[in-house]
């Protein structure tokens, strides 16, 4: 098979790494890819939103299967464009990707189908939102409705902060048109857990749980980021939690989308909050999380092509989805200053130390080749250093050990990824 992966981050590097393990695949393309992906796939200089060029490339190179990693092209309708040209593609159609593309839509869906989530109201007017804020308890959560690179969520502790947040999202348009509509949501407390799933429109198969670290600094301080590290499985995702979610959240979401005439095929990411009142949905994503993919996919036993084809063909019920009885931890190496401002173009050393090691991974998120062919930094999140081990404690020690193997100017990381596992006896 010839496979095309669309995207350029650590998530796509993890996907390409899994695809490369499949004995069914002998050629991988990635558009646009990055310097790390280039060791496994032929990188193609086509942007993820250049749908016509991507279709033309897939046809010209007789691509058998396309995997879309990123949210923007999915919400933009890339799957519909590929399908219209008779091309096999993994991911939700535009009318289903709205599950991530509009937080207002997903909240209304959960309310309609009684899927547990936080209380909320949607607003298209800043004035109405400000009036509403006078009536609610603090803290409160403000969410830009559309895509905002994982950063369009503000947790406001006071009324003053909340009013400033409304101005930021709806008037100053910090997140662009994503802030034309805003969700004001009850602040939930508890442990956050991420659960990825494969879906074929009717059947859902749950992957191993994971737990993200969104804040930029140690101790969950600083600004929200796309994710500074992750671990899998989450010790807080118990059998009881799984049973509740299987009954009230997972299949209910798939059935709700089908009932709305928006059957979902691809990956649904469930962001859950384990509250005192039981698990509730924080958010949906319509694709693999990043860096969740970097800890979940290395643990998956199945051939990823078999699973994804089953989703597209509506035969996911025939797949016995299995994961290794181990653990994985990912520590993101970022550019100091991320997520606000940072410099790029610094040479990265030590990457060769990962060669030939089956239980260590260096997933490239923001890298490129400079004019001399040297791999240099090219983003806020640069590398996802991942290790597997017999348990979370071993995987964590190995991941942090491996962060010392590579270096670049302005290298920054959190030192407490997976610290929560120390709380579990």
UniProtKB/TrEMBL annotation:
Claim: Manganese is one of the keywords in the record: yes
InterPro entries (UniProt xref) = ATP-grasp, ATP_grasp_subdomain_1, PreATP-grasp_dom_sf, PRibGlycinamid_synth_ATP-grasp, PRibGlycinamide_synth, PRibGlycinamide_synth_C-dom, PRibGlycinamide_synth_C_sf, PRibGlycinamide_synth_CS
**In what residue span(s) does the ATP-grasp domain sit?**
107-313
What cofactor requirement does the entry state?
Answer: Mn(2+); Mg(2+)
Q: In which pathway does it act?
A: Purine metabolism; IMP biosynthesis via de novo pathway; N(1)-(5-phospho-D-ribosyl)glycinamide from 5-phospho-alpha-D-ribose 1-diphosphate: step 2/2
Kindly state which keywords UniProt assigns to this record, in alphabetical order: ATP-binding, Ligase, Manganese, Metal-binding, Nucleotide-binding, Purine biosynthesis
Give the molecular function GO annotations: ATP binding; metal ion binding; phosphoribosylamine-glycine ligase activity
Q: Please state the Enzyme Commission number of this protein.
A: 6.3.4.13
**The reaction(s) this protein catalyses:** 5-phospho-beta-D-ribosylamine + glycine + ATP = N(1)-(5-phospho-beta-D-ribosyl)glycinamide + ADP + phosphate + H(+)
Superkingdom classification of source: Bacteria
List membrane-spanning regions: none
Q: Return the broad EC class.
A: ligase
A single BP term in Gene Ontology: 'de novo' IMP biosynthetic process
State the Pfam families in the record: GARS_A, GARS_C, GARS_N
PANTHER family according to UniProt = PHOSPHORIBOSYLAMINE--GLYCINE LIGASE, PHOSPHORIBOSYLAMINE--GLYCINE LIGASE, CHLOROPLASTIC
Q: Which NCBIfam families match?
A: purD
Q: Which family does it belong to?
A: Belongs to the GARS family.
Q: What is this protein called?
A: Phosphoribosylamine--glycine ligase
